[in-house]
Structures are given as structure tokens and as C-alpha cells.
Amino acid sequence: MPVDEREASDPAGTERELSSVPERAAPDQMSEHLMESEHRGRYLWAADLARGLDVIDAGCGTGYGSEIIAAAGARRVVGVDISHEAIDYARSSSSHAAIEFHVGGLHELPFEDASFDLAVCFEVIEHVEEQARAISELRRVLKPAGVLAISSPNRDVYPPGNPHHVHEFVPQELEQALTEQFANVRLYRQSPWLTAAIFDDEQSSSLGIEHELSAKVMKVASVAPGEEMYTVALASDAGLPEAHAVALMGKPFELRWWQEQLTAARENEQHLQRELSRVAEELQGAAREAATLRQTTATARENELNSARRL
Questions:
Q1: Interval 151-203: pLDDT, tens
Q2: How far apart are CA 279 and CA 273, in angstroms?
Q3: What secondary structure does DSSP assign to 148-203, as a single string?
Q4: Contacts of 253 (CB under 8 A, 6+ apart)
Q5: Cβ proximity of 117 and 143 under 8 Å
Q6: Would you place residue 73 in the very low, low, confident or very high pLDDT band (cuts 50, 70, 90)?
Q7: Residue 191 buriedness (CB in 10 A; 0-12 / 13-18 / 19+)
Q8: pLDDT tens per residue across span 21-38
Q9: Among 28, 95, 101, 152, who pairs with 169 as Cys (CB 3.0-4.6 Å)?
Q10: Cα dihedral sign for 76, 51, 188, 139?
């Protein structure tokens, strides 16, 4: 994807260019919406594990997640992405001394064995071919006691039709793929929740992930394992750390729009299934009519032969 030289030196221009690449999230352009909460929420969840560690952010995109990890106290954060434009933007927009960015693919990370304590790879694995090889490469750059934090959309729940996804894992598939290469694996579930929250004026008007809210959180509904929108996992050859639950609120009632999109997609799928069933029934009817016609033709020919013999 070519980029104009003015855009390469203009973060806003590069951001506009990146917005045309739907497979690479740019949460700054999704401000206050569910997609921002989903993407930033995963990094906030992993940030608790990063303090004092060397971290690789594999598939870092524009670098927003690397910033979250560094702000949480990581000793060193290395963002890697295959897109030159994304890395150029990340370098131009980052001012954190602990972060560095490199161009590189998930199948051949440009680092020595055992270089990192923590690897985060969020919403990347479903975009690549040879996924087992990519997971193996992430394991290679981890130290013996290192931890991988990884996620994938759940194919059974995530709205279908993303042309950039090679293979979305269902939870059991992701667990199996990780278990084949790591001794210990634990799954977590990320789902969109509709929340009614009561805040004072300051809490209600606050904006940004730096404003942590002290709130009592309870639920009146459940999402069973396997019904989550995204499956998130920790994997390691050593013991797994405890990861705390994170909830990141976005624009009120935007979830309704997403539910409508999912419902529409499912209704369309059901309509297509009905059309396929109708066409199958029509074909079966046509086959029956053809069989009847063949039988009628055979009977007529036999009658004609009998008449000829009598004559």
C-alpha cells in the first residue's frame, strides 16, 4: 500500500491512510465506541502482567497497545508489525522512552531466542496463514518462564464476513493450538455487556483509560464459555500469572447497534438457508417430474410397439 510522502511525515495523514486498511484497528478513530473498548480493554487486561518486564507487542498496528503496556511500568516494549505505514505512524506518535518499533512478520520475528518475558498478540493470529508456525515463533522469542497473551474472535459468535480473517478460532481450537506448544494454557472470555452505571458528576464526565473508576461491578446475566465474542488466553511453559478482570465502558447503548448488525447477519444467513432449501426442493421436484416423464415415455413407447405388433 503506497503512502504519500506528506502523509508519512503527517500523523493525521498516515492515520487517514491507515483507516483504509480495515484489518488494522486504529482506536483513535473509534473513540468512545465498542470497538475501542474491545481493543484497548485487551491491552489494559495484559498491562497488569507487564510491570518490570521486557514485552513484545506482536502485530502492534499503530502502537496504541504498546503505549498502554509501557505506561503500566514495563521495562521495555517492542512493537512489531508487518505494515511499514503502521510502524511509521507508531514511531511518529510515540514519545515513551521504553518503546521501540520494528517492521516484521509474525512468522519470522527479528529477535533472538528467549528475548522477552511477555508476548502480547491480540487480534492478529486470525489474519495469518500457518498459525501453528506463528505461535511457535512467539514461543521462540519468549524466555523459558515467559508468558504469551493472545486473542482471537470466536468464530461461532463473531459476525461473519471479514475478508481479512484467514481462520477465526473457536475456543476449543485456540486452546488446542496453544496446548500443542505450551505446557500450561488458561482461557478467558471477552464479551460486550450492556451496563447501567451510577456515577457522581466527576466520574460520569471523566474520559480516558487513565481515569480508573472504583466501582462495585455485578451482573444480572451470564455468558457461558463458548458464547463469548472474543477468546483471550494465557500460555506458558511455567506457571500462569493471575490476570484480573477488566471492564472498559464505551458509548452508551452502542451495543444495541452491534446486536442489530449481528441479528441482521444471522437473518440473512437464515434467508440464504431457506433459499437453498427451496432450490433443493425445486430440484427434487424437477427430478421427480423427470422420472415420471421418463416412465410415461417408456410406457408410451411400449404401447406403440404393442400396437405395431398387433397391426
A1: 999 999 998 888 899 999 999 999 999 999 999 999 999 998 878 888 888 88
A2: 10
A3: EEEEEE-TTTSPS--TT-S-PPPHHHHHHHHHTT-SEEEEEEE----------HHH
A4: 194
A5: yes
A6: very high
A7: middle
A8: 345 666 566 666 778 888
A9: 152
A10: positive
pTM of the model: 0.73
Q: How far apart are the first and last CA of the chain?
A: 83
- pLDDT value for 294: 87
Residues 14-51: b if buried by 16+ CB within 10 A, e if exposed = bbebbeeeeebbbbeebeeebbbbbbbbbbbbbbebbe
C-alpha cell of 291?
Answer: 422420472
Which secondary-structure segment (H or E) carries 36? helix 34-47
Q: Are 232 and 46 in contact (CB under 8 A)?
A: no
Residues 196 and 244: their CA atoms lie apart, in Å, by 22
Whether 82 and 109 have beta carbons less than 8 Å apart is answered as no
